Amino acid sequence: MWKIVALRECRNLWTHTSRNFSLIDTNNYLGELLKLGRIDVAKKVFDEMPERDEFTWNTIVAGYGSAGRLVEARQLFDKAPKKSVITWSSLVSGYCKLGFEIESFELFYEMQHEGFKPSHFTLGSLLRLCSIKGLLSRGEQIHGYAVKTRFDIDNFVVTSLIDVYAKCLRIVEAEYLFESMPDGKNHVTWTALINGYSLNGDAVGAIQCFRSMRAEGIGANQYTFPGVLVACAAICDIGFGKQVHCCIVRGGFSANVFVRSALVDMYTKCGDLTSAWRVVESMEVDDVISWNAMIVGCVRQGSPERALSFFRTMHAKDMELDEYTYPSVLNATALMKDVSNGKNVHSLVIKSGFEGYTLVSNALIDMYAKLNDLDSAFKLFDLLEEKDVISWTSLITDCAHNEFHESALKLFSEMKRSGIDSDQFVTSTVLSSCAELALLDLGQQAHASSIKSALDGSLSVDNSLSSFYAHCGCLQEAIKVFDFMRTRNVISWTALIVGYAQNGEGAKSLQLYDEMVASGVKPDFITFIGLLFACSHTGLTERGRYYFESMEKDHGITPGPDHYACMIDLLGRSGKIQEAEELLNKMTVVPDSTVWKSGDFLES
Q1: Burial class, 254, CB count within 10 angstroms (exposed 0-12 / middle 13-18 / buried 19+)
Q2: CA–CA distances in Å: residue 456 to residues 469, 488, 495
Q3: Euclidean distance between CA atoms 148 and 151, whole angstroms
Q4: In sequence order, which residues have a C-beta less than 8 Å from that of residue 522 and are 6 or more positions away?
Q5: pLDDT of residue 510
Q6: Could you tell me which of 226, 176, 186, 180 has the C-alpha nearest to residue 206?
Q7: For 43-54, how does the pLDDT look when each residue is reduced to its tens digit (9 = 90+)?
């Protein structure tokens, strides 16, 4: 409202006294018009000005640049009778804001060639561009220039450099610059480092940095809090998250949309849906971002029914749903296996015009595939004008999960022909399908492709590779992959344990299990299937009985049909028919076909 009042006052003043306006007054009026976004009116005033100075030209160039009208900004820049560092910086800033990397840096070099030394504002604009687009090499170039020209002692430039290095996942360099600042660290500097730690997955570092910032007496703002809340969510530190929430309330940032959504996200990731809902309920004005975060949190915490309920409430409130609302709701219907509501949401997507959004279309494809309606999934996929890696990944993964491995591999071949590079999820899925079909050659091609794409260091890809080679009988290759893993989880160990068992190396399965436990990794449901299978095929009855009994007693894992089937098979092979029958009759789960096959073995 204040903008409208200011504009009216300026307009009345210009209308009644324009002939008596001094150059300073006219420049001020021109600046006000540009701030208010009245570019065309400002240009008319500019054209009618009887005289213009350097400030006038700088103001109009900066106004057009800020408004994104770069062609006209450049034309005005070229017409300017006298250019200064400010004129150049204004044009550079305009190109940087719209993400024009090449043009921005060409202007940076050109202004130096013309004899103008870039200011700290010039460097700040370029570094902001590098930060947003992840241009590490360009950022390093600016860093080098800053060192040569002594701008490396300018707090504004150093803060911008910290932000670039942090966003480009070079946190060590960001820390060094932060520590090298003798004084003048403000909330922007601290926020850049806190967000850097969060982006780099160092949640503890982000929280410690926030504590240090508070101890220094530096106040946080709406850009600081989301970063530290992300860190709290990453390590489920709800206690510190609640302390941050108190700081937010005391600081008067509770109404900020991004802070609220970060709070909702933190509470949901920590499993506290009640506190998350309180944040949403306390809003004076509903905003779709916080509601979306609530729905995502419910789905993530395994409460798809609540997610769907919140979506219905949003719809009843006539809130403006966006392209981020529908994917989570569609995921909820898929988890519930709710075909009817899934189709209802699809109808809403069409009515609201979001079917053309790739993000929403990908979610629809994924939902239908998860509901075992692959025909609808393929139809939607074929209708997609622009297929990204997520589109392909969704359909390939869901085909594999539905055991349509040949279809998954066929899609993968089409994806490669279309020029889309595979990611770690597609590669892992393809390797799993190759393992199921024992397609060694194709799996080796996928392995080679993963190395070219630098995906061979991914834990999920390495796990799939190890499992694939073991499944195809290439134990030495599986061991080689396992040995070269930088990190290992329970899936890594289990893949090789099962691989040894399937390839007649049961004793090595048990030895590897002991190594896994000694390394501090806890076994899971699948690990024990591999162990019991190994015991069954090596005649180690007592060892098998020990593992079976230790599942629930030592690890809190309830035996499933596969475990009973392995144990019954083990007892049967050892001639302990009566004990096998007793175990079959004492089963705490409903027997499936695997168990009954073991029972048939006993009868024979």
Answers
A1: middle
A2: 14, 13, 16
A3: 8
A4: 490, 555
A5: 92
A6: 226
A7: 887 777 777 887
